[in-house]
Design goal:
two-stranded antiparallel ribbon, mainly alpha, DNA-binding transcription factor activity, single chain, Multidrug-efflux Transporter Regulator, Chain: A, Domain 2, DNA-binding, 65% helix
Amino acid sequence: MHISDLAAEAGVTVKAVRYYESQGLLKPRREANGYRAYTERDVVVVREVKALLSLGLTAEQTYPFIECLRAGNERADVCPASLTAYRTRIAEVDQRIVELTELRAKLTDLLADAESWRTGAR
């Protein structure tokens, strides 16, 4: 299948497919005319990358999942390196929650102070 077919079937743009290839996530073979040729397995890879990126993983962080698929596994997240990548992302999310909670508390304090100033309650 050609790049436009892969993109359509996987629900991404041709530009996204080219980006995934540039990041080493896809390794298409070349036809005699120089066109890239993709397989149904590549559709699975692109869908997996798309899903992982939507969870906030970077392209680089998707490598363990793609390698897991390339190793013949039906799921990309059953390999030890994939589980480690999940744990890393969860830790990043936890840290962001802490940061956002602190930011919210600061904003709440500033709002309360501004409201009391405005109403002359100071």
